[in-house]
Predict the structure.
Amino acid sequence: MIQDILVTGLVNGGVYALLAVGFSLIFGVARIVNIAHTAFYMLAAYCFYMLLVKVGLGFALSGVIAVAAVTLLSVACYWLVIEPVREHEAAVLIATIALALVFQELMLFAFGGHYLGIPSTLDGVASVAGVSIPYQRLLILVVAALMLVATWALLYRTRLGLAIRATANDIEVASLMGMNVNRVAMATVAISVALAAIAGVVVAPVFVVDPFMWLSPLVTMLAIVVLGGLGSLKGSLIGALIIGYVEAITVFALPAGAFLKGAVALSIMVVVLLVRPEGLYGVAFEEER
Amino acid sequence: MYLLRRGWAELKNEVFVLPSRTAVLAWAIALLALPYAYGDSYVLRIVTITCLYAIFAASWDLLAGYTGQVNFGHALFFGAGAYTSALISLKLGITPWITVWIGALVATAFGVVVGFLCLRLRGSYLSLATLAFPLIALGLLFAFPDFSGGELGVSGLSRLATTVTANYYVALIAMLGAVFALWLIADSKFGLVLHAIRDDEVAARASGINTPRYKLAVFAISAFAAGLSGALLAHYFRVAGPSTLETALSFQVVIWGIFGGVATIYGPVAAVFILYPLTEWLGSFKAFGELRLLIFALIVLLVLLFMPRGLSPWVRDRIETACPRCKQRNRAWRSACRLCGAPLENRGQTTISETPRSP
């Protein structure tokens, strides 16, 4: 059981980290609370399903096309819906909720509400120190780790990353220094949604695909981001691992744990917030005006 | 006779001078007269549900719009009211006329607890943390299905009244009373403090306002109204199920609130009265039945692109202007202010915080 907890926690934590880092990034740069973030994850899973099962492309090709298509869609949504109401925070908020509902209903209309299964990308089981891990879960772990390293490299080793970090730090000064803040925001949207889409593509064979699959990771992701500190990437990563392990322990060790896993994870978030209102790695509130 | 004349004068001087107040009065009278004018039971049923949701939306507005505590878990209070009232009336056999109030009081207790936990949080942290509370409650409900009924919820409740029309009047009077009470609270000195807390909490505290106490109070009031609406709706549907705690309901109330215009009380009510019957009406078409949520979301998106501050501030800016000197509101087609006589020229660009003050 200990091994199960270790592996499940790590794999789920990896997926949550992909989602939470993207969400955190977009909040930090553009101050958008993107409720539709996991809806893009759902869209990527559907896109992957359609290309793989209906069209019959290979795994790698359908994965890449799905991620690219969803990323393009997110940029289009940003220009059409979010950009015109950027000054009104409340409007941005319900615009993203409405977008998520639109995607959910479109998928419900196109594919129906039943669960869709996707064949595993890699069959077989690896056995590490007596624990058997399906290759698919290993793949999730590897992809998550690679993507997190790539994001880190992008943010800290490129000019675009410098611009993104500068904009997150102080949007007005970044604008004064000649950065095109709107274009930086758009690039951030693309990066963050691409991370969510990659998560959607790799987990689709493990979880079932249905139009409501965005709701439960949404809540977990928000809990992680708040737990780690809004806008802090390190916090999101550590928060994702904490929540991943807490959920795994609840499911394996408690009776009726599957029902309680969300409740326990969220309670931990509430406890952390009571002790540290700004989250684990958030910047303490300066008394903002 | 004196009272009649006094009442007529009040009406003429306070209500008919502003088109928005006249519209509200006309709307209330129309709702009261609806069963006599058009007693179709389907229509009455829709309007009954709309009324109860309107209380819910207005209670969210007091908390989120006025005080700035943008609550993403408002369904917690709704569900607390619904489940408490349902369980007490079913297990102890008490009449729903009493249990709805107990439900509302339990919701108030939940409100104080949530408010206490969230006192130190602000902005997006508060929104995202409050999202968690109804889900924790939902997890507990599913973990103890013997007590809560699990997926199916608590069913077999009795209604407050027997006939369709009587139920309609119960809901309508509850709605008019609750919304008017919330509006009075929001428009009083207490409401002014709430505006201050939203705009600048530090400055409010520096002015000697005990902001934590005010925030707890507003959480309690808002939760009371939300719990009342949840309990009434549970008795109307005759079931209190897990859908009363779902994230979808919390998001729904956020959409109603922002669509109608925050910090107005009547805005979210108007939004419910427009959006809820609209979705039901769309659902009555076979072709649209599956698409109604999609159309709902698209309408919300389109309206927002044109009126980013919400529906009711947009409409009010078209029919009324604020006097540049005394800030009193006037009909848009008057040439001079009705109180101080200052000339009115351009359309007033008002912000949310400049809601009309009335005696």
